[in-house]
Amino acid sequence: MTTTAAPGASGAPGATPSPANSRGRVVVASLIGTSIEFYDFYAYATAAVLVFPTVFFAAQSHATALLASFAVFGVAFVARPLGSVLFGHFGDRVGRKATLVASLLVMGVATFVIGLIPPASTPGWAVAAPAILVLCRFCQGLGLGGEWSGAALLATENAPEGRRAIWGTFPQLGAPIGFILANTVFIGLANGLSDEQFQAWGWRVPFLASAVLVVVGLWVRLKLIETPAFQKVQEANAVVNVPVARAFRVSWRQIVAGTFIMLATYVLFYLMTTFTLTYGTTPATETPAGLGYERTDFLWMLIFGVVFFGVFTLVSGPLAERFGRRKHLLAVTAGIAVFGLLFVPLFSGGTVGVLGVLVIGFTLMGLTFGPMAAVLPELFPANVRYTGSAVAYNLSSILGAAVAPFIAVWLWTLAGGSTVLVGVYLSAAALVTLVALLLTRETKDVAYTDDIGS
Questions:
Q1: Residue span of the structural domain in which 40 resides
Q2: In a domain, 378, yes or no
Q3: Residue 388 CB contacts under 8 Å (≥ 6 apart), including other chains
Q4: Low complexity bias located where (predicted)?
Q5: Residue 429 domain-assigned?
């Protein structure tokens, strides 16, 4: 094991204690990356349907172009586990601060460059334009693979005693904020531009505008002080040479547990966003039949539901502190299982029923997603905490996020336009998470800062 003492670390008796990061700085620095993450997800997902098939894959048939566009979207999910290993390695060896700056740069530059790629119809760009899009999407996934875990550790390793779950909700708020930002921008562009203007240049605005978030995030993160937990790892000479190898050797059970604890959350999130948007805006005359809402109308309904997501993300922190992470998540996950069985009667209730699905689903989403920034890192000692929590989070993204929209659409088609099997799928994922929670100990009172590993 090797280490370098942290600047200002207070290892010696009588040494001046290291200054702490202020709450405001932690909030902004941890929130900004996840906001960009989800902003990017929705910006790309919307552009993948409305624009990219014609801008980058126009030489192919419409169906093939659409599939190609979504295949590029999926490249990020392949890159995310690689990013969790790469950035986890440096996060556990070099420190949280430098790694967070690097992950934000990789993610932010790739997002900005997408907004600059010429159309494939431009002379000389028929191959290069789609190739650069794939490369940018891969880089986005790489950066995202290390972003969440670093943001979660930044919040929780700076949190006062007994407030880790509350401070852990700071990075989690990036999900509803990113959703609202991206969809508000697209609604504004749809209302303010003609279809021709949107296809020609309007779609680039959300990607280029992300630079503002990146600059703010970099400015704040460069002013951070290393977290107390990592300083203790350095002082104790407990930095490991290959964190991913040690994490899988010593903490493989925690990685498996964390992966499945997060499963229901991922499935719920992608059903409430990607699937409901597809189902809600598909005409009732199509096969399989959808609800036939105009896209803009349904986006406003989704934004209304996401407000509950944000509110209950904040509510979840105090609840997880009061009742414990395990007990809180057991109750919420049981609620998700029941909610899946209510898909058909709720979706059959007209606009009120659809709003009921969105409000209930996003409320449960906030309650389950909020504590995860505390729960997953608490499973691991500090010297492999970045790697362990990142790997668990991103492995779960493959099982619960990458495949959820495809499985949901397949089940919807199989059921002849009914959402009954989609709901059963969500309930089944919740049952798997319930088992994982029952097999995992409570982590509320673990020696988080002092558990440095060896």
A1: 23-438
A2: yes
A3: 88, 247, 251, 254, 255, 258, 377, 379, 380
A4: 1-20
A5: yes
Contact 391, 81 (CB under 8 A): yes
CA 263, chain centre distance (Å) = 13
Sequence-separated (6 or more) residues with CB below 8 Å from residue 208: 112, 115, 116
Which residue in 4, 9, 71 sits closest to 405, CA to CA? 71
- Residue 388 sits in a domain of what CATH number? 1.20.1250.20
- The tally of domains found in the chain comes to 1
Q: Name the one residue in this structure whose structure tokens are 């203007």.
A: 197
Residues 214/108, Cβ–Cβ less than 8 Å? yes
Q: Smallest Cα–Cα separation from 74: which of 113, 48, 51?
A: 48
Does any domain span residue 452?
no
User: Closest Cα partner for 245 from 388, 141, 102, 148?
Assistant: 388
For residue 402, tell me if it sits in a domain.
Answer: yes
CA–CA–CA angle 189, 193, 199 (5° rounding) = 85
Joined together, the tokens standing for residue 429 give: 């994922």
Chunked into runs of 10 residues, the chain (454 residues) has average pLDDT values of: 38 46 88 85 77 84 72 83 94 94 92 94 92 92 91 94 95 93 86 87 91 89 91 93 95 97 96 90 90 91 96 98 97 98 94 97 98 96 96 92 86 93 97 98 90 82
